[in-house]
């Protein structure tokens, strides 16, 4: 009976909570933010654990794109950033479908991550298929001047553009992954690379440029004195006329 009691106690013992904070938060950081927040239901001691997780991964979708009621709404992201403690954010990943409904909020979310000294920023932003919205989302200036940003991954289209405010940007950026998705604003893409990437070591540019005329050329002038690895891969369809 005694051995069975010890076995039962071992089975229900909460060993995770006894781990050092650094290891504990590292484990929780592998969860999507929605699931990390749910850990507050496990016990009273876990009530605010998610607020200390250094990595945030959020997925938001416009009802026009995805009617699944279980998909987090923008208010969820607002609350996560509002109630999270003031510690730094190491990695912020945002996947948003139907961004034409959330331009102002996306700007605010990204700026909040920048203020929290984000190191890695992943932005997968898409408009609703066949939408007739003619505006575009310009990534906030704070991204280009952020001193803590080391890794940046983003997707650019004709409605998601990144235009540097001046020729001296990304002071600490070492890894840049730019995926272009048709239709893409070719001129805006060229402007992104008009600045000097003083610390950049890895650059990946890839995606689908769509249909280009025979006389249309994409010119990219890349200034990166510390660049070690460069990968460029485009899918292009040529059309005459």
UniProtKB/TrEMBL annotation:
Domain F-box, first and last residues per copy: 16-54
Domain F-box/LRR-repeat protein 15/At3g58940/PEG3-like LRR: 106-237
InterPro entries: F-box-like_dom_sf, F-box_AtFBL13-like, F-box_dom, FBL13/AtMIF1-like, LRR_dom_sf, LRR_FXL15/At3g58940/PEG3-like
Protein name in UniProt: Putative F-box domain, leucine-rich repeat domain, L domain-containing protein
